[in-house]
Amino acid sequence: LAPQLVLGVETSCDETGIGLYDPRQGRLLAHRVFSQIDMHAAYGGVVPELASRDHIRRLVPLLRETLAAADARLQDVAVIGYTTGPGLAGALLVGASFAEALALSLGVPAIPVHHLEGHLLSPLLASDPPEFPFVALLVSGGHTQLMQVTGVGEYALLGESVDDAAGEAFDKTAKLLGLPYPGGPALARLAAQGQAGRFKLPRPMLHSGDLQFSFSGLKTAVLTATQQEGYGAEQAADLAAEFQQAVVDVLCAKALAALKQSGLKSLVVAGGVGANQCLRAQLGQALARRGGRVYFPELEFCSDNGAMIALATAMRWQRGLASSTPGGAFAIRPR
Ligand code: KG4
Ligand code: ZN
């Protein structure tokens, strides 16, 4: 049998991911993620040099595990896609070198893949996937973007954050409230014990009349609130809840405006903040009221993983949209 499988390699930040996708079956066969969170937690954030070194340690074992779980062999791989950016330069180089070297040894093409395209297409890994066209709300640690997605490779940017990304705002605010890294999930957990509305925080750019976002002021507003006389740690949960609600209100309002503007009914949410339950609930209700539908990636595909890179590679490959690096002279694009 001719090789047919697509291997995806993700090393842009602090997760090492390997995914194996079968385009003929249109199915993910297996994937494995190793998260470095515990290693970086002691430093309060990702240490790039440590991240690079750990990717080196993890890639080969993860590849073996993924192949074993899929009951596949290396010789079944027809194409290898890897994240070329954006991300940490050293971390990206590890994945790129690994993928290019493996491709060279197997005599198959290596395809550079944009990390955000992986996130964008990740909801298509679900059992009940959305159909094109849709509006995508991409909310990760590095990006907050609204895109009109007409097909694979057909992405029109509708709006984005002019400063901090939504995930970045969660992380920075969490730090400010004394929560451990990674801040987003920790802040969401704290918020669940509090009540929004007891503190009043702004909803930045809510009425800006466009689809741009701004989240850096919100973090400052939280800092100011903690410095008010009478503020005590017992109010942190209420403050966290109000912060989360402010971010979610703005994300929801702009996502709905993007749907209206583009005349589309389907919204796809991708990226780490897509794991936020408050965001999921509010968007779900809002879309149900309007006769639209919102699609979220499975929780395991919200954060960085190799499965979404394998899928993006496969979709590009099948449509003739992927090109390998000429002569294997690969380059990464950290920004
Ligand atoms: O997509 P992702 O895994 O990595 C990037 O490409 O950035 O997103 C990570 C971001 C982090 O900022 C993290 O704090 C945030 O997603 N995040 C959350 C939640 N889970 C992860 N933010 C809010 N609520 C969550 N439940
Ligand atoms: Zn990501």
TrEMBL record:
Record's keyword terms, sorted: Acyltransferase, Cytoplasm, Iron, Metal-binding, Transferase, tRNA processing
Limits of the Gcp-like domain: 28-310
Compartments, record wording: Cytoplasm
Catalytic activity as recorded in UniProt: L-threonylcarbamoyladenylate + adenosine(37) in tRNA = N(6)-L-threonylcarbamoyladenosine(37) in tRNA + AMP + H(+)
Binding annotation for Fe cation: H115, H119, D304
Cofactor, how bound (note): Binds 1 Fe(2+) ion per subunit.
Protein name in UniProt: tRNA N6-adenosine threonylcarbamoyltransferase
Species of the source: Uliginosibacterium sediminicola
